[in-house]
Amino acid sequence: MRTVRIRSLAMLAEDPFKYAFMLPTATAVATSCQLCGVGGAALFSPIFLLAFPLLGPEYPLDSSAAAIASALLTEVFGFASGLTGYSRRGLVSWQTAVQFAVVAVPLAFAGASCAGVLSADPVLLRGVYAALMFSLAAFLLFTPRSTLEAAADEECAIQDETTVRTHVTAASRVITFRAPAKGSLSSVCATGLGAFLTGLIGVGVGEVVLPQLVRSCCMPLPLAAGTSVAIVVATAASAALVQFGCLAVAAGGDIITVVPWDLVQFTIPGVLIGGQLAPLIASRELLSDDDIERFAAALFATVGTAFAIKSARG
Length: 314
Known about the structure:
By secondary structure, this protein is mainly α. The chain is about 75% helix and about 5% strand. It has a two-stranded antiparallel ribbon. A hairpin with a 5-residue loop joins strand 1 and strand 2 (about 175-180). Helix 4 packs parallel to helix 12, helix 5 (about 95-120) packs parallel to helix 10 (about 220-250) and helix 6 packs antiparallel against helix 13.
């Protein structure tokens, strides 16, 4: 316990600017991920696990579990920053978010509790991340937002409305959408699996919730994105809490002592900035959704290939 406490606090005083390069890096990652609707941990975990060891022996975190937990903690602040922007514009259906979070949060707890087992096997961890990166690349390539919206328009036009909810934005725009079906097995399974993966490796719930909100609930994309971000924040926050709690128990200390403050002092401000830049870029349409998603897909495929190579080499 004393060793962990000394290292956690002394590292910050020893070289407080060691991770200063992560401020612009975190800003770029958060902006890119939020523009394409993917959790920031999808890229932060690879940076912590793959890039840091290449920089020198003083950069890697204590363990793979610490890297995943730090990525989750960073993601929480990034999405919370984005959530404030959506909330100010009245683009969050809190009632719907709570309905999904009731399923997601417990499964995120379960996934986070199993993270230590996965992170203890580096080869398995790299293989899982490789599969995840390739899956995200395929998701972005083959289900772009334009296609998703077109499919939603068609489905919402031919299906009868049953339970309709009305939402009023800050701009006094009235939005009607279909309430999520209660007790839907397919929705519960998809949301639960995504939440479990978020707890386990930091990514998943946002990628399965957003299509449900757009296609099943017939929400317009801005409201669906804001509601999805609210669900991600609740899910990732609970997972991060459990993961750091497990690290603290293993180290014999408390949560404060196992947080890598020398790293997160730069990643958290970076994602806070990125969380504000993404809505600004999106509102001004400086880049098309398809261009952003193609770039992100190529990036995820590259990261997936790197993980696959590392996993094959053992």
